[in-house]
């Protein structure tokens, strides 16, 4: 692994550790957070769809969803076209919870960016955009495409 790849890998690991710290501070497990994140980005998905996206057993997802429903962060609704199908979605409170998490994460990254000169920030923006443009088209797996 070259130095740049090692540095980027370390940055991702540091950000992940900060995410875990944030989640711990609000009493949220990583699995709960991942379920909420899937629901935030895929608003009308079933528990089976969440399980597939997260590579979890449907029973594990159902257990977590039960907890999130009790906390009024997630809602279950029967599909109008197929009453057997149950659609999961974030409640208003669930969306607020995710927005608070994303804001805290953005603040962390923003504080780190203030340590850079304007030229360095411009370079970081350009490099990250290039990386995103390189990686996004490769997200063609069945799970990524759903």
Word description of this protein:
With 146 residues, this protein is mainly α. It has a domain at 29-115: Arc Repressor Mutant, subunit A. It is 68% helix and 7% strand. It has seven helices and two strands; from the N terminus they run H-H-H-H-E-E-H-H-H. A two-stranded antiparallel sheet has the order 1-2. A hairpin with a 7-residue loop joins strand 1 (74-78) and strand 2 (86-90). The longest helix is centred in the first third of the chain and has 23 residues, at 3-25. It starts with a helix and ends with a helix.
Q: Would you summarize the structure shown here?
A:
The chain is mainly alpha-helical and 146 residues long.
What's the SSE blueprint?
Layout: H1 3-25, H2 30-41, H3 47-54, H4 58-70, E1 74-78, E2 86-90, H5 92-113, H6 118-135, H7 142-145
Beta-strand residue percentage? 5-15%
How much helical structure, as a percent, in the residues? 55-70%
Uncertain residue ranges: none
Highest CATH level, the class of the domain at 29-115 = Mainly Alpha
List the secondary-structure elements in sequence, H or E. HHHHEEHHH
Mean pLDDT: 91
Count of DSSP H/I helices: 7
CATH topology of the domain at 29-115: Arc Repressor Mutant, subunit A
Mind telling me the C-alpha Rg? 18 Å
What is the name of the CATH superfamily of the domain at 29-115? Answer: Winged helix-like DNA-binding domain superfamily/Winged helix DNA-binding domain
Envelope shape = elongated
Largest sheet: 2 strands, antiparallel
In the CATH hierarchy, the architecture of the domain at 29-115 is Orthogonal Bundle
Terminus-to-terminus distance: 32 Å
Enumerate the strands of the largest sheet in spatial order, edge to edge or round the barrel: 1-2
What is the total tally of β strands? 2
Give the helix/strand class. mainly alpha
